[in-house]
Design goal:
Helix content: 25-40%
CATH architecture of the largest domain: 2-Layer Sandwich
Radius of gyration: 31 Å
Largest sheet: 5 strands, mixed, barrel
Strand order of the largest sheet: 1-2-3-7-6
Amino acid sequence: MRVISNRSGARFLVAMLAVSASAGVSAQQQGARDPDIVVTGATTPATSPGPDIKGVISARHGDKLKVTAADGTSTIIAITDTTRIRAGGGLFGSRSKVAADSLLNGLPVTVKTLQPADGQPGEGLVASQISFRNNDLKTASMIRNGTAQGFEEQTAATESLRGRMGDIDKYNIKGTTNVHFQTGRTELSAQDKSELCATANSAQATENALLLVVGYTDSTGGDDLNQALSEKRAARVINYLQQVCGWKPYRMLTPTGMAKADPAAPNDTPEGKAQNRRVAVNILVSKSVDGL
């Protein structure tokens, strides 16, 4: 074999590279014209920034999350291998098993999303980043573990309570706590949250106590809107009592929304309306159990 060296060899190598590059360009150009020749390559779907979604994870199925906001609206969001998951100030990184397992039902999250650009096919929003607080993750983990671990205990307690209560529908009210809301809103204030846990602790110290939660609105708005709003307010209070204050679900009577019925004050003044936008948490004990 003859070895080409020095300047002649260098000229030969450069010439061969030029021919190869020219052939590659020609092949691509020909592929663009000839339908029988296909030039393949990786493509990245076009995306644009989507809305920031804040709410609580209410369902999880595979790589899809359902996030429910404070107003009751729900959004389905997909998770991908590039989704970043942050807890507090720390970064878990790309979707590792640990990071994915941290997305529990009941966890409050903030999700930065992407959506397919105009004209691109897609199923909806994709999470680019999911962030939450470490304390919220601890609470969600406690709820999940407590629910699974205490299922048999709660079932037995429920049957016991049913046996003692029977068909009795008369109760003694041991105390009532009212939490109040802004017009059209369902958010709880820091003071409300503190009072709810204090009420749960007080009820816990009362033997055989149950909680009855009733939501109300003022007279602003239509009947259907107020009914839905009163139910959402009651649900928000119940979730906080159970998930944060530790109140057992089997010690909760069926909640209800009463809309603008049974006002606590006249609705003809702003002060009266403010009193009526409330959820009442009643501590009840059956008269038969209470001995009265």
